[in-house]
Amino acid sequence: MEDAPQAVQKGFNWEYLGSLLINKDFWKATLTVIQLSTLTWLLALTFGFVLALMRQSKNFALQQSAATYIWFFRSLPLLVLLIFIYNLPQFWPASSVLLSSSFIAGLIALVLSESAYMAEIHRGALQAIPKGQTEAGKALGIPFLGIQKLIIIPQALRIALPPLANQYITIVKLTSLVSVISLTEILLVGQQLYTRNFLVMETLLAVAFYYILIVSVITYLLRKLENKLDVTQRNNDKEDDINLDHQALTQYSQISNERQGNFAIEMKAASKRYNDNTVFKDLNIAFKWSEVTTIIGPSGSGKTTLLRTINGLESLNTGIIRLEGTPFLYGLESQQKVDVADYNRRIVHIGMVFQNFNLIQHKTALENVMMAPLYHQLGTTEEIKIRSLAMLDKVGLLAHAHKYPHQLSGGQQQRVAIARALAMQPSIMLFDEPTSALDPELVNDVLMVIEELAKEGMTMIMVTHELSFAFKVSDRVIFMENGKVLHDGSPESFQNTTDPRLARFVQQNNI
Ligand code: ADP
Fold first, then answer.
1. Any ligand 1 atom below 6 A from CB of 303
2. How confident is the model at residue 238 (pLDDT cuts 50, 70, 90)?
3. Which fold has domain 10-229?
4. Is ligand 1 within 6 A of the CB of residue 274?
5. How far is the CA of 432 from the centre of ligand 1 (A)?
6. Quick check: 448 pLDDT over 70?
7. Ligand 1 in contact with 346 (CB < 6 A)?
8. N or C: which end of the chain has fewer CB within 10 A?
């Protein structure tokens, strides 16, 4: 430690303050504070995320243990925790290997306490991410951890970054408490100086200087990171790499012609209920290859639920779904259980298009399309890129490949979503009210893409309110009401129905 003036001087000693700003011990302590707070922030951020996921889990034990952790460590004063952990070797001598270092003891106490706060910040961010983002990943056969890594964490981090940055600053200041267990951090260096020379104000001003310096640098860096993660501030400046024309891409945009089994999909004795509300019961429907089926009916009749049970986004209570001739999903009450690995492997044979597009918000159109093929390693990055560009070209959006979803109209987003589903080479496509969220003038572009797929022989099951379109492109119309199938046949037989209920529907909807 540098020699400090021994005598107490009258007035404010500016010269001494100046010397403290280049004091080696203070700078060393500053480095310790930066190391301790950065490590604490990163570890607590990670552990807090796991806690937040546990807190949201459907598993009661996981949920409760996370909630208890958060309650306990938020209630406990950090000072108590610090002294407790530092003195733990008295009862548990083996722990002295780690805990004899005041840095490590301080780090453990800070991480334990801060994770509880970070978990709540993450939980808020996770709740702000629409459920559709996870569903899009699931429908593309990406398992839980992959969804977290590719879809959820980048978005949650962006939402949570301002409060997380705040927490970083809080941690920097909390490190001063670690001086009670003799860590040579900024405050302790100051205390050691002023207890010898009594220049309290000058020394504390220097202490304040070092804290303010650290906080200012961290704030600056985190703001830069925040701007980097903010997709609304990004330009699509990568357009130069699209040098393939329509002609060259066409050969890569073929749809899958793989067909196994007598039927594409078979539902047998399928029932679904939400608590006491039975949506449908004992349904038996088989979908043939290359058949275009439209499910229509009044709101609340169970059309969307039926569609979502086909690819497991909703679980059946009873019954079985066979995909391409072999069992795929079982009802919850069945003896047989769904094999998760088999599900993730085969789900990609079914492409899904959602009402709200569910494009991944922080990825460009091209990145959205490439995401699942890259995850499933369907080729080299270059091959996947060419095929993805070809799919974007197929839906007429090649020129928009590098745009983010917020830079596209609803109709364009929906067409990207179709390209994204097609990029996995599915043999069956499900459409859940694909045009319901669109302005009327944007509907046609999407319908034209669907019609084109029908012409190419794609097996499709569609829930839609676009009845005249449905009757034009469909081979088969299923009319549902209150979970019951009242009609299952050709569009013509529906239009010429003599059933009074169907006739009323035909009349009401000008079919
Ligand atoms: P449709 O697509 O024909 O409008 P849905 O399949 O959306 O009908 O809904 C069928 C029934 O299931 C409705 O009574 C609806 O309230 C109920 N339902 C749908 N989703 C849920 C859910 N997640 N939780 C509880 N009930 C639901």
1. yes
2. low
3. MetI-like fold (1.10.3720)
4. yes
5. 13
6. yes
7. no
8. N
- Range(s) of the chain covered by CATH 3.40.50.300: 246-508
Q: Strand order in 428-432's β-sheet?
A: 350-353, 428-432, 459-463, 292-296, 476-481, 484-489
Q: In which residue ranges of the chain is CATH 1.10.3720.10 found?
A: 10-229
| Domain 246-508 top-level CATH class | alpha beta
List the single range of 42-56, 230-244, 267-281, 402-416 with lowest mean pLDDT: 230-244
Assign 3-class secondary structure to 273-294.
EECCEEEEEEEEEEECCCCEEE
- Is the C-beta atom of 309 inside 6 A of ligand 1? no
Closest ligand 1 atom to the C-alpha of 305? Answer: 6
CA-based nearest residue to 51, from 75, 74, 73, 67: 67
Residue 278: pLDDT band (50, 70, 90) is: very high
Dist. CA 317–CA 270, nearest whole Å: 7
Residue to mutate, 277, 478, 484, ligand 1, most ligand atoms under 8 Å from C-beta: 277
Burial 265-303 (b: 16+ CB within 10 A, else e): bbbbebbbeeeeeebbbebebebebebbbbbbbeeebbb
